[in-house]
Amino acid sequence: MGKTYFISDLHLAEHRTDITQAFYTFLEQHMSSSVDALYILGDFFELWVGDDERNPLAIEVAAKLKALSQFNIKVFFIHGNRDFLIRQQYADLCGMTLLPEQAVIDLYGKPTVIMHGDEMCTQDLVYQKFRKKSRGWWWPKLMLAMPLWYRRRVAAKARRKSKENQKGKAPEILDVTEEAVLAMFANYGVKNMIHGHTHRPDVHHYPEGKVRTVLGDWYSQSSYLVVDESGEQRLLCHDF
Questions:
Q1: Strands 221-228 and 3-7, how do they pair?
Q2: Share of the chain above pLDDT 90, in %
Q3: H or E stretch at 124
Q4: For the domain that residue 123 is a member of, what is the CATH number?
Q5: Looking at residue 191, what DSSP letter applies?
Q6: Cα 209–Cα 211–Cα 214 angle in degrees, nearest 5
Q7: Per-residue pLDDT tens over the stretch 156-193
Q8: What residue spans of the chain are helical by DSSP H?
Q9: Residue 75: beta bridge partners?
Q10: 110, exposed or middle or buried, with CB in 10 Å at 0-12, 13-18, 19+?
Q11: Domain enclosing residue 54, as ranges
Q12: Which of the four, 65, 200, 213, 239, has the lowest number of CB atoms within 10 Å?
C-alpha cells in the first residue's frame, strides 16, 4: 500500500547534530519503495541565506534526499519563514520539486491544501509586515545580490530581532487565526489542510467535515504525518 509523508520545522543546523541524526534515522526507517512522496513544508533549515551557502550539512542533507530517487520517492518542498531563499540550484542538488506557498495536491483522492502556515498567523502584525517584504519580488533579489558574508550578518540580526519581538506576546498571537483558516479552506474549496510553523502538532476538526493537521517541530522530537492509500492520516511524534 502506498504512503505519503509530511514533515516541517526541522530547523536543521550544524550545532544541532541530534536533529540531523533524527532526520537521517527517519529516512532510514520510513523511506522505502512503498512510499510515493515526501513533502517538506518549510523551515527545513534553521537559516538559509542562499544556495551558494554550501556548508557540509547542506551538502550531506542534499545527498540524503537525492538518494530517495532509488526508491522512486518524489520529494516536494514549500518554503518556510527561515528558508524562503532556497532556490532551484539547491532543489536540483536534492532532487526535489519546489512548490508555491500554497499548493493543492490530490492526496489519494482527497484534495488537500498544503503550506508552511505562517501566512495564517494574521494577529502577528510585526511578522506579517516582514513576511510581505521578504516574500516580495525585490527584497529576495536584492539580498541574493549581496556578498555571502553580508547575508549571514543580516540573517543573524533578523533572527535576534525576531526573538525579541516574540518575547511577551500572547500564545494566540503566534498561532493561526480561525478566520484565516476558514478563508484558506474557502479559497481553495477543499476540506483537508496540512501545515506546520506553529510547533503545535494536532488535528483540528471544523464544520462540514473539514480537517486541519498541524505538523510538529523537531527541537526535541521527530514529528511527521503519514497518509496511506486508504486515506488514513496518522500524526506521530517521537522523542529523541
A1: antiparallel
A2: 80
A3: none
A4: 3.60.21.10
A5: S
A6: 170
A7: 887 787 777 667 667 767 899 999 999 999 999 999 99
A8: 17-30, 56-66, 88-94, 125-134, 138-144, 148-166, 178-188
A9: 38, 96
A10: middle
A11: 3-239
A12: 239
